[in-house]
Amino acid sequence: MLRRSLPLILALTLLGSPLLTLAKEAHPQPKGVIVKFVASEIDLADSEGKAKAHRFAESNGLTVKRLHKHANLALLETSQPAHAAALLKKDPSVVFAEPNYAYTLDETVTNPTDSRWNLLWGMQNRGQVVNGVTGLPDADVDAQEAWQLSKGSGVIVAVIDTGVYYTHPELAGNMWDGANCVDEAGQPLGGCVHGYDFPRNSTDPKPAHSHGTHVAGTIAALADNGTGIAGVAPEAQIMALRTDTVDQNGLSLYTEDIIRAIDFARENGATVINASFGGPDNSLAMRDAIARFGEAGGVFVASAGNAGRDIDTEPTFPAAYDLPNIITVAATDSQDSLASFSNTGAVSVDVAAPGVHIVSTMGYPLLQEANSPEASPTPSSDKAYMEPAEIEDDALFGYDYMSGTSMAAPHVSGIVALLAAYKPSLSATAFKGAVLSGGDSLGSHDGRTLTGKRVNAFGALASVADASVTGTVTLAAHVKNDNGGAATLPGFTYKVDGSAPRSFASATTTLTLAPGTYTIAGVTKAGYAVSAACTGIALAVDDVRTCLITFDDGPTDTTPPVIVLKGANPQTLPLGQAYVELGATATDAVDGALASSSITINSSSVNMNVVGTYAVTYTATDAAGNKATATRSVIVKDMTAPVLTLTGANPLYLKAGQTYVEPGATARDAVDGAVAVTITGTVNTKVVGTYVRTYTATDKAGNKATLTRSVVVTKK
To answer: 189 with 182: CB under 8 angstroms?
Structure first.
């Protein structure tokens, strides 16, 4: 073990740091093709099925790299993954074929006795200044309050990432043992060093990059150890699953390695998977693996991505998979605003969590050559914090700021670990429900995530706490009839955290609620204005809080709201593609921005399997009952060209003077069936030379396919 003295603080420059770009700007290219076979045709569970798979690959000019019998999948090597997948998916023995997609990490760059606790604004925000930014008090996950109930003891959290520096002093005590590990098919591996490295088929997941170590620290760094930071679940166990590869794409994570890691986590008892990566490619194989994990009771936490876009309309995966065990996470800053870089989505993104200027654990390789393709980049923040005398093995351990939805997701993974230790009998969907229901509602997030909330660890635990663990809110209500109104209190209602409306029992109502943070708001009634909601009511056990709501009569609202459609109108989609609803917003002169629940959407007429133009109607209703409607045209078009196949040789060789006989070609279209082929270009067999015949097939929608044949006339 090598140790030496180091300065307490090492100043580093943010701009120009290699960590800012982990992969090339162009979308990473896939490596190979993944094929799922129809089990009745090719069953990889038996030797004959494996032999059939090899023959299948050879007949298509491909090579088998790896077989996954538990999922009936094969990874086949090819230099043209997209072309190979398009051909193979037509084979009746194939369920699906897709490129082995590459995904990238979702980072943008960069009290307990723990010495840097004050920097962890996401855990406890008192309005302190972190990295030059003053926070908003209580814009945090209430970690200390949650630790009164759970610290995540014994829950295994798998981190699918770049590996973890498992000897870091803040992580070493919370690493998964791995002594009795099995592979993704359940076969013993003879012991793993706290995880597995899938691209290199190694039982040692020690990394060459600190992204995964930073994620792991946010989840489960030790607390109350007198140094550094603390994780959200400081007694959970980290299973390090390394899946990164450095190649022509830069640093990427490939589909096959990811699905192997997911299945490994399932087989080895992980309750939570943290997935701080993403890409635009929709892998069915990855989706199936996540579903398998959910069926085993596992929660899959995905970062929403850092492109600053709406992933309901421009999806990124795995974040946009519609699976009940996925929680997709956007990033917030220390003032509870969504980060400018964070992806959003009123359907696809569930909640937000702290993800800007997050300090966590790092490890920097010292002994690798500088030009090594997998050498760790220079730390990428304004300041990287190094403990003295902490060089061990081949890494310098420290702490660094990083930002991204990569940093937001592990806050949620830690919360799920707290829940799993507190209520281990709950299902994956119950864990997800607790995270979503227990968050703090933020009006600025409405319409940008499913819940409009930033997660709250204490709120999540409180949502599943025993009924006896409660506090009290005294709700006082008053009706003002000074403008001709005559309504009485029984005609009014209120909501707690956006729940179903409740009636007032009397002028003073006592609410008994589980510990958490609440918003109580009166429901607008025609002819009456309601006072501002009581927000941020923090309720602990035996607390008593008050809330006053006033209803004041005023002029009658007869103006309907204004609907604004999101995205294109008309919306043009290719035949056979899944319909994606773009959504709409509505604003009312009296009520302001209407909640999504006030807008109904009828898209039942859209049939993506039949060419045509369809109408999607949107109806918005304000509190006074005024309705507005809008219509979007959805045009379903056949946008796929026919498949054109030449008959005979190409090129075709003839002797001079020999009669040219046209071999012909055939064309089939997915919609129109057989399509006529037109042929142009002349061949003069009396003159030596090379002639080109052009074959064109056009379907009824105007989509064209073209091939050429070379006819070579040689001397006799």
So the answer is: yes
